[in-house]
């Protein structure tokens, strides 16, 4: 804990804030940086970092929240799977509350009798399958490169132990493909609706994939990237480094998170993932739409552990709640407060879209930590809507 | 005469709740032996006692904690402390408790005896009698071992008026000690979570601490709450809504043990939302705050007490906090359960 506290030191934060202000004073115009990762979104909101930044530095929340980017159709598939008799669906906590179409979430499906269990580790799902051999135990696997190796480990464990009633509903997605999609989107390239002067690069994801994959964006799109840890001082320092790059006219990949990220990443984890998984030709993202080669599926050698094959799952067409702006929020085109549902019918208590569910989602982070900054609404009932 | 109950190896059977001789035997051998007092000894369907003049308070609470035994306590002691604390938060002196047990068929009698004896010890230590009770048994699978409901009655000393409507903007907010000990201690022994910690639940009866605060603060002690489920965040939001004020906290002033902070970090939890069972938060007029804080710190259950913030005028009734870094944030109601983040 002492180690973590060192990265949350208020005195050091104020010193960094002064250096940021000085650097901004040397430059011209504003600075618009996208933090790709939900972990950064959470840290920025949780510690009130925007209060320490000059007004000309704007942070744009990116799509790096695994819970947020999963489209409704995949959530519907998971719910239908959980509703099958004999199936036990294991999921990380945040996924429980994401609404599918018809407003049903896994939490509601559970209340109605589906067997949904919250787990903390993929090994828990394998242990459950061993303890209850008469059940078909399915791991609802989601997340970016960070959470893929644990899924691979669970599959290897099940294979080694000969666990036949365990499978994985694989929804693992890839960070570089999503960044490229944003940079190539008409919003950024043609219409100029989203201005991005640089990226705060992912922390945990980069411990796996390394810093090398970002070199392409820095060169091809002339955008600086600074990989940053999830602690508040990490984020502030990364912002300072980005501002310096912009002021110097540089666009390089810099690594603020050197204590954990190496250029080549974690070779062992990458090997494990490459052995079990292969690229999907295309995958549907909430907000970004179909993104080519942006997600993983199990190789045919591991087909018996693939829930999609095992249960012949097929995603049915499904739409977001009408009016929900999660897609535009995830692309950085809109802010949470631009959505008419935000804070009226959509709150963490009754989320309409995925960005209001996870604490890493832009809408939930704004509602939970930052809404005191919003202009006071005429309808003062809004504050009372937080009431149970 | 029946054979004695085999408390060591026996289990709860449906007959133990059926109203017949098996139930009478369970009550006599397990409940009355441990909780013995003049009211239970009389054996009526109700306890009769003289009413003191003045104002009384009454409260009721259900206990369904899992696991039943955790570091620093169990469901029995918790059922006594929790209800005593709800009485004490009104500035009242707890007098009598009732206890209603819902037992699951198959629950080991040895565990039941342990729970009841722990309850008796907690009540004895607090100087409060469990004067009436009830026992029901439900089929296996319809409950989780044992659920306990306790109801309590207390007496408010003359001149004491501690209630949420007395909270004013400008009140100082005092917290009696470190946050999250109970929640983390319980979570550390959940079968799906299990982690090693030396942490103990803070479960304790707070009425003597309250008495010291009432004596020190007098009319300046406006309101008190114990931040149980939903933690300090839920309690402060409740008070802000009910009293029509905003709350401003200083993160750095809030005591949190390193072990709790570390466990929260690991589990993706925020200690402000984690349950406590032996802490209180008080709203005190600024001119009385010094004396009340000193009285708290002089009491064994309040030696880590701290001034953590103030109430302010705020139509939106926000609970806001200045973070350790100097930024601002809302401390919101908890939505759903506190679910760990995944990456």
Structure keywords:
heterodimer, A: 388 residues, alpha/beta, Rossmann fold, 2 domains, five-stranded parallel sheet, four-stranded parallel sheet, 18 helices, 13 strands, 39% helix, disordered C terminus, B: 343 residues, alpha+beta, 60s Ribosomal Protein L30, Chain: A, Phosphoribosyl-aminoimidazole Synthetase, Chain A, domain 2, seven-stranded mixed sheet, four-stranded mixed sheet, 9 helices, 31% helix, globular
Q: How does this structure look, described?
A:
The complex is a heterodimer of chains A (388) and B (343). By secondary structure, chain A is an alpha/beta fold. Chain A folds into 2 domains: 2-63 and 193-255, HypD, alpha/beta domain 1 (Rossmann fold), CATH 3.40.50; 68-175 and 265-310, HypD, alpha/beta domain 2 (Rossmann fold). Chain A contains 18 helices and 13 strands. In chain A, helix 2 (10-26) runs parallel beside helix 13 and helix 3 (38-46) runs parallel beside helix 17. Chain A starts with a helix and ends with a helix. In chain A, 53% of the residues are buried. Chain B is an alpha+beta fold. Chain B folds into 2 domains: 14-156, 60s Ribosomal Protein L30, Chain: A; 164-330, Phosphoribosyl-aminoimidazole Synthetase, Chain A, domain 2. Chain B has 9 helices and 13 strands. In chain B, the strands form 3 sheets. A 7-stranded mixed β-sheet of chain B has the order 8-10-7-11-9-12-13. In chain B, strand 12 and strand 13 form a beta hairpin. In chain B, helix 1 (21-35) packs parallel to helix 4 (109-126), helix 3 runs parallel beside helix 4 and helix 6 packs antiparallel against helix 9. The longest helix of chain B has 18 residues, at 109-126. Chain B is globular and about 70 Å long. Chain B starts with 20 loop residues before the first helix and ends in a 13-residue tail after the last strand. Chains A and B meet through helix 2, helix 3 and helix 17 of A and helix 8 and strand 13 of B.
